[in-house]
């Protein structure tokens, strides 16, 4: 009985365990069963036989003579240039490459919301302000700061706050972007105006630690620590030493860290400049806060010139101090303005004669304007300049006469049209200020009608035409720098053909000099010729074939397009018409003068500045002066120096009546026989004021998309068939007054135009004729060079040794 009862209890105990095992393995078994069942349904026995069938012995290839061949491809540019095929080569304008840095960064070690007040007051006066704070101390006010960088302290490892800050600065590479680094806690106010004046007078390129030293020679952080770039670089490189420093506080640890890593003793004076710190003693009494003492501290000159003030107990302290130092700075600037004005008045009284001419200002009268141009002294006051100055004079007159009527001036100068009358604009000056706009100084002269013996009344006014509205172009399309370029060179004379051959030779030199730089972008050079002999055509074909063979790394294609007899009379338009018909409208076309001399950077600039359906690019080229005149001026200077050394006085009579173009051309013919031909051979054209000038009247080079040219092509017929104009000087006229496509005009040093004889057609419009003739005159040389050639005795060139001539 007992055994049966025990057996029953044992069976009852085993049953839950078995039930649990069944529940565990049931999903696995059910899944296995379902998988087998589906496999049986999907695959029949015939299918399995086909899948598992072994190929016959005849179908198996023998592997006895197999050999594995690994073909290695070596890039042209070396082992590390395997991706250069896809790399776009372009000009780089990064500030780091140019070594450009900002002057100062202000680093605030924040512990409370006082950093918000410092950011609101000081932040707008320094180049950059960066705030570092422990993440556990950041409240709602601090969290909205855009220049706040939080960090987290690990209490177990005992890391200091300054270690996290230095690591963060190194991660952002801030040490490469600033000359000076100024550290303060958020309980210290720094006078931003005094700080900026201080760093302007110090040399950043030497190790400097400026501040207030304690008894151990460490800089006190509460007073502010100024580190030069070289000192801060040393601090970052040795910052690992700061992790083992044991100190009572984070501030004290940072002070010791600077001393140990830079090995610099703190100095309060350096290079004749002082670090001034004003510390308000805490008495614990009511009213001991800084904002309660500013009203009587303002009388202290030492306090007004201090660099830092501490400690700040509240945000009101920071704002009160900032308001005080702003007023001090305004007073200093006002005193400086008064002192400068007094110096100008004293200097003006010492000058003989009439008013002096301000530097860089343009002088004008009612009839003429004297611009800052090297080739022209004065110009008649016409066009937009005349409208501008007349409007300024009218505004100035109204201001003067209203002030006289209101009695805002001396009672003896009350304006009355019956006794006073405006006579003239005696003097006028103007200058463009990029920040303010156009500024004018006008002297208005009034005469007395009833008392003619009385001296005229002259009133000077300073007028400003401000920049009221500026617009950012947010809808500028995206520009890709991998666009193919087709360079179109129109040729219709023998001189242009010779110039084009020289251009192709220079292009080959560019390819050879940069053969290691592989460019996947295609550049096509097209010569569009008209009325050229077969001999010259054959020479151009040979040059193009040679260019294609030498410029494989540039992906250069070539083409020679003879223009049809019925093509447009304007060679530039006919060349573009023929090129676009051959190669399509979806690429950039550069209409290039055969006299051009360009660098590789021009093609990059073209790709960036030419935008489909939005912008065409007309670069301003550097035009070369007449080589004979440039070399003659140089040789004449050497000849005169040789005569001075020999003690020979040149008393040859000067012919000052040689003041026309015919006389200049006669002198040039004489120089052509006098100077060896090798002297005027084509040399490297350098951008220099004595070698040429940026011709703002030259629109011979243009880059555009074919579609934009086709859309504007209809205006070409309107311009030439209106009965008034039979020929255009260039294609710039067809893009004027267009709303959808605008013109970009900018100086381009990498585009140079070789000297050539410029011919102005009599069929040009008056405006085009004026531009053509002005470029023709300016291309001879500077005024000093022309005067030297015209009025000097050219025979003294024989006195210069040939060895010096060819230097």
UniProtKB/TrEMBL annotation:
It is found in: Golgi apparatus, Golgi stack membrane. The keyword DNA-binding does not apply. Keywords: Golgi apparatus, Membrane, Signal-anchor, Transferase, Transmembrane, Transmembrane helix. The chain crosses the membrane at residues 25-43. The lineage of its organism: Eukaryota, Metazoa, Ecdysozoa, Nematoda, Chromadorea. One of its GO terms (cellular component) is Golgi cisterna membrane. It holds the Pfam family CHGN. It comes from the Eukaryota. It is a single-pass type II membrane protein. This is Hexosyltransferase. InterPro entries: Chond_GalNAc, CS_glycosyltransferase.
